């Protein structure tokens, strides 16, 4: 690879000025132009596209879209000759197509059977009569599985291929779940080191650069070793080996650019000193905050709490972990450059006990919730501890028994 110091060349021209010959000036400007192009080309780091019906198992951290069924035939769409009198229709939402969605239909290969034939408007012309039918590769009593099914988007530089996997719940509301069938990955250079990069279309809409404060609406990125599963949100920033970068990700996922975020502004967050781990995410990205006595830093912006954890050891040396996750809007907060943002997370947690009666038997449910409504899990040495006991004693003391709970 040819390496050209563009800044050095221009400095030399300024230094030498008219003392240089015409041939030297032309040659140096030529090298400068080539160098600028090479520098720009090195910023764009291309990734390879892969697809599989087992994409979610191979890659992990993939979400889905749940599509609601309609029995109404879409107006203006040209349709194939269906085998069933009333096929199902769906709209897959995607910003990659001009009208914002692609039409899908499900048909049956035999009367009374599960819906095992799928049509999708793969070329985005609004019709299904020019599409090949996709047969389910597996069917069960109330489920059908399809994929990977190829669709084509129109990009600035030509057609873009993308793949989808489907699971039909052929009962009740007939929901069709759409999963990403493709992803991008490859080797990139970060700070002079080779690292493995994976881009995941988490929300299954065909684009790879969605940002959101809601975890389910933003895409995912990994940069590290190939065998690592440290997944971050696609956002304005990403932290790699302690340094912050601004990622620019192609809408179709084909490439990534990384620019050092040297001018990033930070603000402080404060919580209980007992908290040992804390993570928050938003349009800025997803960050594990390094805490010192309950205080840490985040780039200025809006966030939603991802999780918090408290870790302690008992007298026997076993490690207990209390973890809160699954936050809604109550977990939203803003970080400013001035002052500290105080967060109400951690202890105490709320333990609830519910009961119900069925066939002369009593059933009890124990639940743990945090102050902001988050789910709480409690583990001992990485495993769920034994269920607590239930002690029931009557007011007069005549009934006094202790029962063992069992999970499940």
Rg over CA atoms = 28 Å
Distance between the termini: 61 Å
Computed structural class: mainly beta
Number of domains: 4
* DSSP strand content: 35-45%
How many individual β-strands?
A: 31
The main β sheet shows up as: 6 strands, antiparallel
Shape: flat
In helices, the fraction of residues equals under 10%
Uncertain ranges: 1-42
Q: How would you classify the quaternary structure?
A: single chain
How many DSSP helices? 3
Tell me, rounded to a whole number, the average pLDDT. 88
Structure description:
The structure is a single chain. This protein has helices at residues 6-16, 22-43, 55-59, and strands at residues 45-46, 48-51, 65-67, 88-93, 101-107, 117-120, 134-135, 138-139, 143-155, 158-169, 176-180, 182-190, 193-200, 220-224, 232-233, 238-240, 243-249, 255-260, 266-270, 277-282, 285-288, 295-299, 301-313, 319-325, 332-335, 340-342, 350-358, 361-369, 375-380, 389-393, 400-404. It folds into four domains: 6-43; 51-182, no CATH class; 188-260, no CATH class; 268-408, no CATH class. Residues 1-42 have low confidence and may be disordered. With 408 residues, it is mainly beta. The protein has three helices and 31 strands. It is flat and about 75 Å long. Helices cover 9% and strands 44% of the residues. Helix 1 (6-16) packs antiparallel against helix 2. The chain starts with 5 loop residues before the first helix and ends with a strand. The longest helix is centred in the first third of the chain and has 22 residues, at 22-43. Strands 20, 21, 23, 24, 25 and 29 form a six-stranded antiparallel sheet that branches. It has a five-stranded antiparallel sheet with strand order 2-12-13-14-15, with no helix packed on it. Strands 3-11-10-9-8 form a five-stranded antiparallel sheet, with no helix packed on it.
């Amino acid at each position: 690879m040819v390496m050209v110091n563009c800044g050095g060349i221009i400095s030399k021209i300024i230094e030498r000025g008219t003392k240089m010959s015409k041939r030297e000036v032309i040659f140096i400007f030529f090298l400068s132009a080539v160098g600028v192009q090479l520098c720009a080309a090195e910023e764009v780091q291309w990734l390879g596209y892969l697809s599989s019906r087992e994409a979610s198992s191979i890659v992990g951290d993939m979400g889905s879209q749940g599509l609601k069924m309609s029995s109404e035939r879409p107006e203006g769409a040209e349709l194939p000759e269906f085998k069933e009198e009333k096929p199902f229709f769906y709209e897959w939402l995607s910003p990659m197509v001009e009208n914002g969605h692609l039409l899908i239909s499900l048909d049956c290969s035999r009367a009374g059977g599960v819906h095992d034939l799928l049509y999708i408007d793969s070329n985005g012309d609004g019709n299904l009569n020019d599409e090949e039918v996709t047969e389910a590769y597996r069917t069960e009593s109330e489920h059908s599985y399809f994929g990977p099914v190829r669709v084509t988007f129109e990009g600035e530089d030509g057609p873009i291929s993308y793949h989808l996997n489907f699971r039909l719940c052929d009962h009740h509301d007939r929901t069709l779940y759409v999963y990403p069938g493709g992803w991008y990955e490859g080797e990139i250079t970060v700070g002079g080191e080779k690292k493995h990069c994976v881009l995941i279309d988490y929300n299954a809409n065909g684009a790879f650069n969605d940002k959101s404060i809601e975890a389910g609406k933003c895409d995912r990125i990994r940069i590290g070793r190939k065998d690592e599963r440290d997944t971050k949100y696609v956002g304005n920033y990403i932290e790699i080996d302690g340094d912050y970068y601004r990622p620019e990700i192609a809408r179709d996922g084909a490439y990534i650019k990384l620019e050092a975020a040297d001018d990033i502004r930070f603000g402080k967050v404060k919580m209980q000193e007992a908290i040992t781990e804390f993570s928050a995410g938003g349009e800025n990205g997803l960050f594990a905050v390094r805490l010192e006595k309950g205080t840490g830093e985040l780039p200025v912006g809006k966030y939603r709490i991802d999780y918090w954890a408290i870790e302690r050891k008992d007298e026997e040396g076993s490690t207990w972990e209390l973890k809160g996750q699954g936050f809604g809007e109550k977990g939203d907060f803003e970080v400013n450059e001035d002052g500290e943002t105080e967060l109400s997370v951690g202890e105490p947690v709320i333990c609830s006990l519910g009961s119900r009666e069925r066939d002369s038997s009593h059933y009890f449910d124990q639940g743990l919730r945090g102050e902001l409504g988050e789910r709480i899990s409690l583990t001992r040495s990485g495993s769920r501890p034994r269920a607590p006991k239930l002690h029931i004693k009557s007011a007069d003391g005549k009934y006094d028994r202790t029962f063992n709970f069992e999970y499940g």
